[in-house]
Design a protein that fits this description.
The protein is an alpha+beta fold. Helix content is 39%, strand content 34%.
């Protein structure tokens, strides 16, 4: 009898060890899958915040580069808000139009009166909607996504004069 009890206790011990190992493997698998999902969510949020920050920084740097008397204005073109930056290069006036359309930030650099319109611009980056408005020398730029932000720029030039 002691032989069959010994055999039974070894089987029970082996089964217990196997179940414990299986629980350990399943726990490890669950932790890896959960960690992967957490990483994916963090990466997605960081990427969205990065795009919004880049959009704001890009526009702010363009405005700071071109902040001269009468050169910065916000206008409406075909229902799209456009930030217009004028500059004189070798006695010719050039215009940089920055606008948001179709889920992307766009830029159009052209000679004033060239006939190019906002549909001819170059894509800068995909981002959430960007709004721009100017009041009394203050330019307000805002991104509207979940990670959106807002930026106020005080123009040294006070923006374009009323024409």
């Amino acid at each position: 009898m002691s032989g069959s009890m010994d055999k039974r206790s070894r089987m029970t011990g082996a089964l217990f060890t196997l179940i414990l190992f299986l629980v350990f493997v399943l726990s490890a698998l669950f932790l890896v899958l959960m960690g992967g999902k957490v990483y994916e969510n963090i990466n997605h949020r960081m990427e969205a915040a990065y795009r919004e920050d880049v959009a704001l920084s890009y526009i702010a740097n363009k405005v700071r580069q071109g902040d001269e008397a009468g050169s910065v204005s916000v206008k409406e073109v075909s229902g799209t808000t456009v930030l217009e930056l004028k500059q004189v290069i070798q006695d010719s006036v050039y215009v940089t139009d920055i606008y948001y359309q179709e889920g992307k930030l766009w830029e159009l650099f052209s000679q004033y009166g060239s006939g190019l319109s906002i549909g001819d611009g170059n894509e800068i980056l995909s981002c959430s909607p960007v709004t721009m408005e100017m009041n009394d020398g203050l330019l307000h730029i805002k991104t509207e996504g979940t990670e959106g932000g807002s930026l106020w720029l005080s123009l040294r030039s006070k923006g374009a004069q009323d024409e």
